[in-house]
Design goal:
- The complex is a heterodimer of chains A (528) and B (398).
- In chain A, 38% of the residues lie in helices and 21% in strands.
- Chain A has 528 residues and is an alpha/beta fold.
- In chain A, helix 1 crosses helix 3.
- Chain A is globular.
- Chain B is an alpha/beta fold and 398 residues long.
- Chain B has two domains: 205 residues, Medium-chain alcohol dehydrogenases, catalytic domain (Quinone Oxidoreductase, Chain A, domain 1), CATH 3.90.180.10; 155 residues, Rossmann fold, CATH 3.40.50.
- Helices cover 29% and strands 22% of the residues of chain B.
- Chain B is built from 14 helices and 19 strands.
- In chain B, the strands form five sheets. In chain B, strands 3, 4, 5, 6, 7, 18 and 19 form a seven-stranded mixed beta sheet that branches.
- In chain B, helix 2 crosses helix 14.
- Classes of the chains: A alpha/beta (528), B alpha/beta (398).
- Chains A and B meet through helix 15 and helix 18 of A and helix 10 of B.
Chain lengths: 528, 398
């Protein structure tokens, strides 16, 4: 029986706590008597018969007819699926998307459906490489559909292949992939790693245009999204749900399939990551020492290759299908069952170890903008009710924050760092002054459409993702980061965690209380 | 008189070249530059004047000579031993304050002018630079016969002398010569950008010459949008103050030009790029970069003295890029078709744009090793121009 998450009050006997530092780790001693560590629940058991569970879900959907009843010869069927941004790290084959899609395709074939398109719902993310598509969907699907041009990736900049479904009462235009819009049925195949994803967000962002996304991917909305993991208190999700209502009322029929994963994220060589520090045995300590010392001496490119090559053993814990709202409600129950940890009250400081990867750099570089996005956008938002840190408190992150970018994946990020962040770090100002220029830059557009680049506007979205955290925190410190780069982000560099605590005293006084969000393994702090 | 003099001592030059990568001070100690006692040069004849140095700047070309990096190209165009110093403000025997246009042109060497009212730097044949009644030498400061500004006095010809306005300080005047060089480079961009409404002109490097070129572009190239690659924050601030629209670090310049021009980055070249570029560095790397971000059929003006470089010129060939040297000043054809002497433009500009702010520090002649070290490390030490101050002590203002 997996143990639930819990809050450890740090005392003198508490060992140093594991922190991510990009492509490495460190152990940090937190002050006794005023620090606490929020540990995630242990991984839930996987479904016993995953393929059987998928089939049962398709045949017994929620608030909708069984999938076979929706399929008929001559119909246009579009299957859309979540892109490479999750899960992290990528899961061992077969990927959940492959398993679900194979079951859907079997039923489509049995029903005589032959007009099937499979679309990667990547929104403004980068196009997936062939090896990533093969990993997510399996060779059989790739080889059957890709050569015929019926497996492809959504293009949010193709005016000939976008269609307007309708407009919300608030004036938000729902514009999505034309093939999907004109289909008799969209089957959406989802993987839910966090509560932010899934539901109407799947189609209304993954298959949407820039115009459509800009209704909610903006500073004002993100500053009022509290949090990204709590859809009922998220302005972003409220907008998305309004767009979902338009889709439901005026768009094609949607059959939503959502799956959840447990948090068994790292394989045995990195077993110490998944364990609580005081439970480390001699082997864990030796592995930790050997790993960190080796990584210290490993060229950064090789270290990245090692980490991005990891395939997580995480497994499916639930699968549900049917009407989007009904399905997503159940999905969230499973997500929170795996990730929710009750926590009492806020502290003055929140510490976060930033890993080598976030949803926007699979097989790429965790550039400085993404460090901000991961810390303030994702990890800070892993809460319900209230943030772990009080308003005006200090957020301390650990990451090398090198000034390094993947020019193929993140061309506009480089310019964003050099041009926009030199001018302003304020989301509202940069939105007003710079966003349009980047969104309409022909070179970025070309690279997004034909290469493997994130859309030109994406670094803005990554920055906006952290808008709430940026607004909430009184000071943000990065430990171990390249100092000029950290300053360009508008943050304060510190050499060590002790230095960071010392710097923080300017804001929170001499004996601040501290929360540490223990990642990896994902958790959502339910802060009372 | 005591003067700093360079002699052609091959062993010293070689040693200086070796040590310069470690320390300019060390290179100066063992190199070809020495503080020596010499006789003041004799006046060769009518039209020549004795100039008593007030301030004499240290130029990049001086440093490369002191450090033994000067190209062998110059071996036959200079005469040893010589006293460096071609950025000079001083006074004549009658007390008239002057700046010197240092090129030893036709008039100074006793040859007919290539055209009426030609400036010393004009003409399409350089034979006169090694002939006439003077020893070979392209300029004062590289000629054995004239001495140079790194001495209390030297000689100059009528054709080289420009009277300094009363309102102009020595600190402004010592920057006139580099200002003229920068303005000349700026005006060399004009033929390529003349038909463009708001031409984008990049400047790579923001030492004294780069900053002078920025000022020249701002004042004399109509509508120029100037984007600058400057390594140090003080250089970026000065570039902006002198008229640049944008100043970024050199490694950010390619992308800054891309953003301004809306071009694509294809491999390591821009698909389009700056209409013209001034390379104020003059190295393999700077030339390579300039060729990458200058548009096809654009022009790269090479102002920094390059010596030997290694370059892949395929891009130049494919893009039909013009690569033009910008050695020095003379008579300019202005955008409105009028003709002006560069030095006159430089005197106006140095005053109008407050060039005295570029003079960061002065040293006495006998403290030359520290002066050279400061000049060689100027950017890193938040400095721009370093000069020798040979005025009597009571007149030293900086």
């Amino acid at each position: 029986m997996p143990r639930p998450g819990f809050v450890l009050e740090v005392d003198r006997s508490t060992p140093p706590i594991l922190f991510w530092r990009g492509e490495n780790f460190s152990l940090e001693k937190l002050p006794a008597g005023r620090s606490r560590v929020i540990y995630p629940p242990e991984p839930l058991p996987a479904l016993d018969d995953i393929d059987g569970a998928i089939r049962r879900a398709l045949l017994n959907p929620h608030d909708q007819d069984p999938l076979p009843a929706l399929l008929f010869p001559g119909m246009k069927l579009t299957i859309a699926f979540d892109d490479v941004s999750l899960p992290l790290p990528k899961m061992r084959r077969p990927d959940s998307r492959q398993r679900v899609m194979e079951a859907v395709l079997d039923m489509a074939a049995a029903a005589g459906v032959d007009d099937v398109h499979i679309i990667a719902a990547l929104g403004l993310h980068r196009r997936m490489h062939e090896y990533e598509l093969r990993h997510a969907l399996g060779d059989r699907i790739f080889d059957a559909f890709h050569p015929r041009g019926t497996l492809y990736q959504h293009d949010a900049e193709d005016p000939d292949n976008l269609a307007v479904i309708g407009t919300t009462p608030q004036g938000e235009v729902l514009e999505i992939n034309k093939r999907a819009a004109e289909s008799d049925l969209i089957v959406y195949v989802n993987i839910n790693s966090v509560a932010m994803d899934g539901g109407w967000k799947s189609i209304t962002t993954g298959l949407a245009s820039y115009r459509c996304l800009s209704h909610h991917h903006n500073p004002e909305t993100l500053e009022n999204t509290r949090s990204l993991m709590d859809r009922h208190k998220s302005a972003l999700h409220q907008s998305v749900w309004r767009l979902g209502t338009v889709l439901r009322d005026h768009g094609p029929k949607v059959f939503q399939i959502e799956t959840t994963l447990n948090t068994d994220m790292f394989p045995s060589p990195f077993g110490f990551i998944n364990k609580r520090e005081w439970e480390w045995n001699v082997k864990d300590r030796a592995t930790f020492l050997a790993t960190t010392k080796s990584l210290d001496r490993t060229p950064i490119r090789l270290a990245r290759k090692i980490f991005h090559g990891i395939e997580g053993p995480h497994q499916m814990t639930s699968v549900q299908a049917g009407e989007t709202d009904a399905v997503h409600k159940i999905t969230l129950e499973h997500i929170f069952k795996q990730q929710l940890v009750p926590v009492e009250g806020q502290t003055d400081i929140l510490t976060l170890g930033i890993p080598f990867v976030c949803p926007y750099n699979p097989d790429g570089v965790m550039n400085p903008v993404l460090v901000m996005c991961m810390g303030l956008g994702y990890l800070f938002n892993m809460y319900r009710n209230k943030p772990l840190v009080r308003e005006g408190g200090v957020i301390i992150m650990t990451h090398p924050t090198y000034r390094d970018f993947n020019p193929v994946h993140h061309p506009s990020y480089i310019d964003f760092f050099e041009e926009v962040l030199s001018d302003t770090t304020d989301p509202a100002t940069m939105s007003r002054k710079w966003e349009k220029k980047y969104a309409e830059d022909e070179w970025y557009r070309h690279l997004y459409r034909t290469g493997n680049a994130y859309h030109g506007v994406h670094p803005f979205y990554a920055w906006y993702w952290g808008a709430h955290g940026l607004q909430h925190a009184g000071k943000i410190i990065i430990v171990g980061g390249d100092a000029p780069t950290v300053r360009r982000l508008g943050f304060t560099p510190a050499s060590t965690m002790d230095d960071a605590f010392e710097i923080a005293t300017d804001v929170v006084g001499r004996a601040p209380t501290i929360s540490h969000l223990h990642v990896p393994a994902l958790l959502v702090a339910d802060v009372s | 008189m005591k003067a700093l003099q360079i002699d052609k001592k091959l062993g010293r030059i070689g040693l200086a070249r070796l040590l310069s990568s470690v320390s300019t001070t060390a290179a100066a100690k063992v190199g070809p530059l020495e503080l020596v006692s010499i006789e003041p040069p004799a006046l060769p004849g009518p039209g020549w004047h004795r100039v008593h140095t007030h301030l004499a700047g240290i130029c990049g070309s001086d440093l490369s000579t002191v450090e033994g990096h000067a190209s062998p190209y110059f071996d036959d165009w200079v005469s040893f031993p010589f006293v460096p110093g071609h950025e000079v403000v001083g006074h004549l025997d009658d007390g008239t304050r002057v700046v010197i246009e240092p090129v030893l042109g036709h008039a100074a060497r006793g040859f007919p002018l290539p055209f009426d009212d030609a400036a010393p730097g004009d003409g399409n044949d350089y034979a006169h630079l090694t002939r006439g009644h003077l020893e070979p030498g392209i300029q004062i400061g590289f000629c054995n016969s004239t001495c140079g500004g790194w001495a209390p006095q030297f000689i100059a010809h009528d054709s080289q002398i420009h009277r300094v306005p009363e309102s102009m300080s020595d600190e402004q005047a010592v920057l006139v010569e580099p200002a003229a060089g920068g303005i000349h480079a700026a005006l060399l961009t004009w033929p390529t950008v003349a038909t463009i409404d708001r031409p984008i002109i990049a400047v790579l490097g923001a030492g004294t010459m780069g900053l002078a070129a920025i000022a020249g572009l701002h004042r004399y190239v109509p509508g120029a949008r100037i984007v600058v690659g400057a390594r140090y924050p003080h250089q970026q601030a000065l570039a902006t103050a002198l008229g640049a629209e944008l100043a970024v670090k050199p490694d950010e310049l390619t992308r800054a030009v891309r953003r301004l021009t809306g071009s694509h980055l294809v491999g390591d070249h821009l698909s389009g790029g700056a209409d013209a570029t001034i390379d104020a560095v003059g190295s393999s790397a700077s030339l390579r970069d300039c060729l990458r971000f200058t548009r096809p059929r654009g022009r790269v003006v090479l102002m920094g003295m390059p010596a030997e470089v290694t370059l892949d010129l395929t891009g130049l060939w494919h893009r039909e890029t013009q690569l033009v040297g910008a050695y020095t000043y003379g008579t300019e054809t202005m955008p409105d078709g009028s003709r002006r002497r560069t030095f006159d433009l430089a005197i106006e500009s140095a005053q109008a744009m407050g060039f005295e702010r570029l003079l960061s520090a002065t040293y006495r002649l006998d403290d030359y090793r520290n002066a050279l070290a400061h000049a060689a490390d100027a950017g890193h030490r938040s400095a721009v121009k370093i000069a020798f101050d040979l005025r009597p002590t009571e007149k030293v203002s900086r």
